[in-house]
């Protein structure tokens, strides 16, 4: 049994393995998946000397605890949270050396939703379609972590960063999502666009890796017929029958039968990953000429 691994002491509410996902398979019905907050995941990897696409742990709300079988350098980024090694406080947002057999405790998010834990060498579970990401919708990739599970680690590459702490944007106190009109914008009334642009929305507690659900004004449709299923992208704002917009995130379905009223700028989706339930949300319509950063993360 290799000692280049770690044991899960506490899995937390939802902790899963994520890298940069598996783009290019939508024609097969496979979502991209990957870390919801890519900048935070990339920063964690950079701090421990990994390439950007190395697999990390993505925690949700209440963190996790793991015990490495050999000494390893780790870094925790994303949602600010307490970090401890065998009960002693350790740095968040900086490289931390965890001795063999010690327990790394990643605590509950102080603000935000998702924290990222990078290990020097990366989490070396078997890739599926060239990615180690857990996909909650399709079931591809490793299962979410469970207490007692043992996950392998890769071999460290370059040296870890020599920093005391790395600056990073905090979770949003108000989520502002810039949005280009979608392919089915004409299915909605002018009043619906007014409500979308000026309505007071909040992030719903029903949000997950598939989509960020909202609470607020329902959008009135001008067309009430059925819509054949059509392609969906990360950031698509779909409107189900209750009229409340849903912003599709990394594990979104590749097709859907509800109209898409808009598409959110890719640069705004990391903040959406960190918006806790109850966070105020504004949709800001923008012109296509101001939408050049809409590329998927």
Top keywords for this entry?
297 residues, mainly beta, seven-stranded mixed barrel, elongated
Shape: elongated
Number of helices: 3
Q: How would you sum up the major sheet?
A: 7 strands, mixed, barrel
What number is the mean pLDDT?
93
* Unreliable stretches covering 5 or more consecutive residues: none
Structural class: mainly beta
Number of beta-strand segments: 20
Share of residues in helices: under 10%
What does this protein look like?
By secondary structure, the protein is mostly beta strands. Helices cover 8% and strands 27% of the residues. The chain has three helices and 20 strands. It has a seven-stranded mixed β-barrel. The longest helix is centred in the N-terminal third of the chain and has 11 residues.
Short synopsis of the structure:
8% of the residues lie in helices and 27% in strands. With 297 residues, it is mainly beta.
List the helices and strands and how they pair.
Elements: E1 5-10, E2 16-18, H1 38-48, E3 56-58, E4 64-68, E5 72-78, E6 83-85, E7 88-90, E8 96-98, E9 104-106, E10 115-119, E11 150-152, E12 175-181, H2 190-198, E13 201-203, E14 211-215, E15 230-231, E16 236-238, E17 246-248, E18 255-256, E19 260-264, H3 269-273, E20 280-285
Parallel strand pairs: 12-20
Antiparallel strand pairs: 1-4, 1-11, 2-3, 3-10, 4-9, 5-8, 5-10, 6-7, 6-9, 12-19, 13-14, 13-20, 14-17, 15-18, 16-17, 16-19
């Amino acid at each position: 049994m290799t000692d280049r691994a770690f044991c899960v002491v506490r899995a937390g509410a939802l902790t899963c393995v994520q890298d940069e996902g598996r783009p290019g398979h939508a024609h097969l019905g496979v979502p991209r998946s990957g870390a919801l907050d890519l900048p935070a995941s990339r920063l964690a990897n950079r701090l421990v000397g990994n390439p950007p696409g190395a697999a990390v742990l993505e925690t949700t709300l209440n963190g996790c605890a793991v015990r490495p079988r050999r000494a390893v350098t780790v870094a925790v980024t994303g949602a600010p949270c307490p970090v401890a090694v065998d009960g002693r406080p350790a740095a968040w947002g900086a490289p931390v050396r965890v001795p063999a057999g010690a327990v790394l405790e990643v605590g509950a998010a102080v603000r935000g939703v998702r924290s990222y834990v990078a290990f020097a060498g990366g989490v070396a579970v078997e890739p599926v379609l060239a990615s180690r990401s857990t996909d909650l919708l399709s079931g591809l990739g490793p299962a979410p972590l469970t207490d007692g599970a043992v996950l392998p680690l890769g071999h460290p590459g370059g040296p870890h960063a020599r920093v005391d702490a790395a600056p990073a944007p905090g979770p949003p106190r108000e989520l502002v999502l810039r949005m280009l009109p979608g392919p089915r914008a004409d299915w909605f009334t002018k009043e619906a666009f007014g409500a979308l642009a000026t309505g007071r929305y909040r992030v719903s507690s029903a949000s997950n890796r598939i989509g960020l659900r909202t609470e607020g004004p329902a959008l009135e449709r001008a067309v009430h017929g059925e819509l054949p299923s059509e392609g969906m992208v990360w950031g698509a704002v779909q409107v189900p029958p209750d009229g409340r917009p849903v912003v599709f995130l990394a594990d979104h379905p590749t097709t859907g039968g509800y109209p898409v009223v808009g598409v959110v700028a890719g640069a705004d989706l990391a903040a959406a990953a960190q918006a806790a339930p109850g966070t105020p949300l504004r949709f800001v319509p923008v012109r296509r000429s101001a939408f050049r950063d809409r590329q998927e993360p």
